[in-house]
Amino acid sequence: MPTDSSTPVQAKNNGDARSTDHIVGERIRHLRQARSMSIKELASDAGLSIALISQIERGISSASVRVLAKLADGLDVAISDLFEPALEDAVSDRIVARVHERRHIDLNRTGIHKELLTPFARQPRLDLYMMTIEPDGSSSDEPFVHQGEEAGVVLEGGIELYVDGKRYILGEGDSFRFASDRPHRYLNAGSKTARVIWALYRESE
User: In what ranges is there compositional bias, type Polar residues (predicted)?
Assistant: First the structure.
């Protein structure tokens, strides 16, 4: 049975954390059921434990960025699709998204806030995020891989990026790009909140 190295952690005892965890859990369950997948099948495809997925779907555990990436690959969707249903575009070539339309997710356990700047369900997927990473915030304790390619630029503060086991220290104005199937993780080891524009590209679902 596939397992995940992270230990499920109960959501913080406040309304916002419970709301975020429940919204994410309900979205994952909806996507899984829409594909006629059992939790066991998703666990096998995502490389996660049945117990962890069950806890996330019920909103009693918070998922890390690593776990969300594995779930997205298991469901064959973009990571942004785990936030909430995509906007229904009245026009297929819609160009502009207003501030109030942005979707977001707070990964309270990991100190990361992700705001989706491009809420359009297009193929191929090119999702642009505003990432806020609090001091000691991290994607996960272990490196992970998923589909696609990513790139970004640090706007404020700094982060440590690990790709294939190599450590890169990025400060304000520094940028990066790498294939997402290379083992990677990131963290904010500084004392100042970091803000990063982060892009994820995915060819198809």
Answer: 1-17
CA dihedral sign, ordered 52, 167, 174, 170:
positive
Q: Which residue has the tokens 């080891």?
A: 189
CA distances from 52 to 40, 65, 165, 176, 190 (A): 11, 14, 26, 32, 30
Query: CA of 29: how far to CAs of 38, 59, 77, 152, 186, in Å?
Result: 10, 11, 13, 30, 27
Is the N-terminal amide bond of 124 cis, ω within 30° of 0? Answer: yes
Q: Whose structure tokens read 């918070």? A: 62
| Digit-coded pLDDT (tens) for 62-78 | 888 999 999 999 999 88
Residue-wise pLDDT for 8-26, tens only, equals: 333 333 444 446 788 889 9
- Its CATH architecture, for the domain 99-202, is Sandwich (2.60)
The arrangement of strands across the sheet holding 166-170 comes to 166-170, 159-163, 184-187
Question: In 3-state terms, what secondary structure has residue 191?
Answer: coil
Helix 50-57 vs helix 39-46: angle between axes, to the nearest 10 degrees? 120
Q: Which CATH architecture has domain 15-82?
A: Orthogonal Bundle (1.10)
